[in-house]
Design goal:
362 residues, 16-stranded antiparallel β-barrel, globular, Maltoporin, Chain A, two-stranded antiparallel sheet, 1 helix, mainly beta, 18 strands
C-alpha cells in the first residue's frame, strides 16, 4: 500500500506553542530570566495527480521571543553563572515553504522536494531526493536518500555587538534504510545516516563561541512496531545511537502506546530518554584569555547531560475530519546523564509544548 498514490487529497493545519521555563536566579544573578517562547503554524497539502504521481506542499510560520545564554562566568563558589542576552530585545519570525512530488512504480517510489526558509537573520535553501525498492515478495523495502542545504546568516545587530556580519554553511546528508515485515503484526526498520557540515558552525550570538568549521555526524536508528489484536493497540519503540567528530555521542530511546477506542478515538501516551557526552571543546565557564582561534564553547547544548520527556496525543476521527491534541513536558538535567559529567552546565532547558491540529480528506 505504501507504493500507491494517496487515493484522496489531504489538507492539515497545526498550531503549536513551545515555552521554556525561566532560569533560576541562582543561575543568572542579573538581568532577564525569561527564555524562549515560540508559536508555530504549520500547513500541509498532499494530493494525487493521475495514477502514479502525488504532490505535496508544506508551509510553516513561527514567531519567537525571549532570551538565550550569552556567556558564562565563575561565581564566588566556582560554579558557572549565566549572562542572558535580554528578553526585551529578541524577536524573530521564520517562514518556510517547500514543494515535493513522488512517482510510484510497481515495486517502489521516487521522491523529491525543494524548500526555502527565511528569518530576520538567517536564510536557507535546500533540496532532497529519495527512492525505495521492494524485495522478497514486498516484505522487504530498501530506501536511500540524499539532502543538501545552503545556509546564510547575517546577524541584525552585528555592528552593535561586534558579531560577524555575514557567514555561510553547507550541509549534506545521506541515508540508507531497510524495512522488514516480520509478521502480520510486526515490522522492523534499521537506518544509517551520515551528514557533513562545513562553513560557519559557531553561534554568533554568544560572546565567545569558536567551533571547528567541519563536522561529520553518524546516526544509526532502529524502529520496531507491533500491533496487539486483542487490545486493538500498537507499540512503537525506537532507539538511536549518534556520534560526531566534535566528540559528542548520544543515546535516544523512545516508545509510544497507540490505543484505539472504537473507530473514532485514539490515545497515544509516549516517553523519551536522551543522554549525550560533551563536545571536546566544551567549557562551562568562558575563558576570555584564550586566543580567538582556539576552540571553546559554553553552549549548554554541547555539554554532557540527560533528558526525560513525556507526553500524550489524543486523536479524534469524525467523517472526513480528524483532530489531534498534543502535550509534552521535557526536563534536561545533569542527574539524568548516562555519560560522565565533568563540567556541569548551567541553563539546561526545561520546556512545555502544546499543539492542536486539524486534518481534512477530500
Amino acid at each position: 500500500m505504501s507504493d500507491s498514490p494517496p487515493p484522496q487529497s489531504t489538507a492539515s493545519y497545526k498550531v503549536s506553542n513551545y515555552s521554556e521555563d525561566d532560569l533560576d536566579r541562582s543561575e543568572s544573578p542579573y538581568g532577564d530570566l525569561e527564555r524562549y517562547d515560540i508559536d508555530v503554524h504549520q500547513f500541509k497539502l498532499i494530493s494525487p495527480i493521475g495514477r502514479n504521481l502525488s504532490f505535496s506542499l508544506d508551509a510553516n510560520h513561527e514567531t519567537m521571543s525571549g532570551a538565550s545564554p550569552w556567556y558564562t562566568s565563575s561565581g564566588s563558589d566556582g560554579e558557572p553563572l549565566v549572562a542572558m542576552s535580554g528578553a526585551s530585545g529578541i524577536y524573530d519570525e521564520r517562514t518556510e515553504v517547500s514543494v515535493g512530488a513522488s512517482y510510484y512504480l510497481s515495486q517502489g517510489t521516487v521522491s523529491g522536494v525543494v524548500g526555502y526558509s527565511e528569518e530576520n537573520d538567517y536564510r536557507a535553501k535546500y533540496y532532497a531526493f529519495s527512492a525505495s525498492r521492494n524485495f522478497n515478495d514486498e516484505l522487504t523495502t530498501l530506501s536511500i536518500g540524499y539532502s543538501y542545504s545552503s545556509d546564510n546568516i547575517f546577524p541584525t545587530d552585528a555592528d552593535v555587538f561586534n558579531r560577524v556580519t555575514s557567514e555561510s554553511k553547507n550541509s549534506k546528508s545521506g541515508v540508507v534504510s531497510i524495512s522488514q515485515i516480520i509478521s502480520q503484526n510486526s515490522t522492523f526498520q534499521l537506518s544509517l545516516n551520515i551528514s557533513e557540515q562545513s562553513g560557519f558552525l559557531s553561534d554568533p550570538y554568544k560572546l565567545r563561541d569558536v567551533r571547528p568549521r567541519d563536522k561529520t555526524q553518524i546516526a544509526v536508528t532502529n524502529s520496531y512496531r507491533h500491533f496487539f489484536r486483542d487490545s486493538n493497540s500498537a507499540l512503537h519503540v525506537n532507539y538511536r545511537y549518534y556520534h560526531d567528530d566534535f566528540g559528542i555521542s548520544s543515546h535516544t530511546i523512545d516508545s509510544s502506546w497507540h490505543k484505539n477506542i472504537g473507530g473514532t478515538f485514539r490515545i497515544v501516551p509516549n516517553i523519551r530518554y536522551y543522554s549525550q557526552s560533551a563536545a571536546n571543546f566544551f567549557t562551562n565557564i568562558d575563558d576570555f584569555m584564550k586566543p580567538l582561534n582556539e576552540y571553546q564553547s559554553s553552549d549548554y547544548r554541547l555539554s554532557s547531560f540527560g533528558a526525560l520527556s513525556g507526553g500524550i496525543d489524543i486523536v479524534f476521527n469524525f467523517g472526513r475530519w480528524s483532530t489531534i491534541l498534543s502535550a509534552e513536558r521535557y526536563v534536561a538535567s545533569d542527574n539524568f546523564a548516562s555519560f560522565s559529567v565533568n563540567r556541569p552546565s548551567a541553563a539546561l532547558v526545561k520546556f512545555n509544548r502544546f499543539s492542536i491540529g486539524l486534518e481534512y480528506i477530500f
